[in-house]
Amino acid sequence: MNTDILVSIKNLSRFYGSLCAVNDISFEVTRGQILGFLGPNGAGKTTTMQIIAGTLSPTIGEISVAGYDLMDYPLKAKAEIGYLPEQPPLYKEMIVEDFLQFCAKLHHISRSKIKSHVDRVIEQCNLQKVTKRLINNLSKGYQQRVGIAQAVIHRPAVIILDEPTIGLDPIQVREIRNLIRNLSEEHSVIISTHILQEVQAICSHVQIINYGQLIFKDTIGNLFSQMQLTRLNLACHRPDADMQILTQIEGIEKVEQQDEHHFHIQYTINKNPAEAIVAKSVSENWGLYELIPENRSLEQIFVELTNEQFKPIKKIGD
């Protein structure tokens, strides 16, 4: 067994009655990895996170956390998980330090080690200035830090964060992102979000789910390669130019006509056909006057993938 694989999901599905919220997904998360779990609202992100965290049972599938099967050894598996839901589970009438001591006891940390664990997460989450304050009186950013502190106080192998920066101001967002980066040095982190900038800023890997189906999974580097220049905007003076010739040029995958003068050209990465297009336009006398590269943003890739005509899956016979 690869000890660097801290989360292993195999053929996971979850039905609510006849509706399939999560449909046969499989993936792994390794030590030190920050995985961004993307998807539209209702795509199945939170359901998947709840299943991994052990707060929701799968209909079918296998889940392993730090080498422990979640179904066969639930207590050992859950002991390796730190979970921060979208609404942090805080007792707001408590003082920060007292609340963290309480969380340490819930995780069965021995009395002799509680102080060291609390001191460590206070330093990790930069809570030194608020340890004696009521949680209810803290800003949302600090409350989020306390929520993360309770999730990591028992030093779990895996940290699951559901929308960790939602509702925060830009300064708070930057602070939480830095905190997550620091946590990834000791833990594997899974972030469920629909905020694309979040993934670009801190994640090493990304997965996209839509209608419960995993439609993309790769490193953030390979995702960025898809954002490279793979489209050209072409304009010609001659409206009767034979654009079918373009499809014969090496590297060109698709040509879309916008109007009689303007075209979008999709081409294969590392096979930029611009030079061949210019040469062909001269030989064919198209009157080329515009050839502009077009970047695809992460938002465009996300929309293209999630706009595919997936439909909710239903159980056979329903």
Overview of the structural elements:
This protein is of the alpha/beta class. The chain folds into three domains: 1-80 and 156-220 and 298-318, 3-Layer(aba) Sandwich (Rossmann fold); 90-154, no CATH class; 228-295, Alpha-Beta Plaits. The chain is built from ten helices and 15 strands. A six-stranded mixed sheet has the order 6-7-8-3-9-10, sandwiched between helices. A five-stranded antiparallel sheet has the order 5-4-1-2-15. Strands 12-13-11-14 form a four-stranded antiparallel sheet, covered by helices on one side. α3 (96-106) crosses α4 (111-124). The two termini are 39 Å apart. Residues 312-318 have low confidence and may be disordered.
Label the CATH architecture of the largest domain. 3-Layer(aba) Sandwich
Give the CATH topology of the largest domain. Rossmann fold
Which runs of at least 5 residues are low in confidence (pLDDT < 50)? 312-318
Mean pLDDT: 87
Q: What's the gyration radius in Å?
A: 25 Å
Whole-number count of domains? 3
How many E-type strands?
A: 15
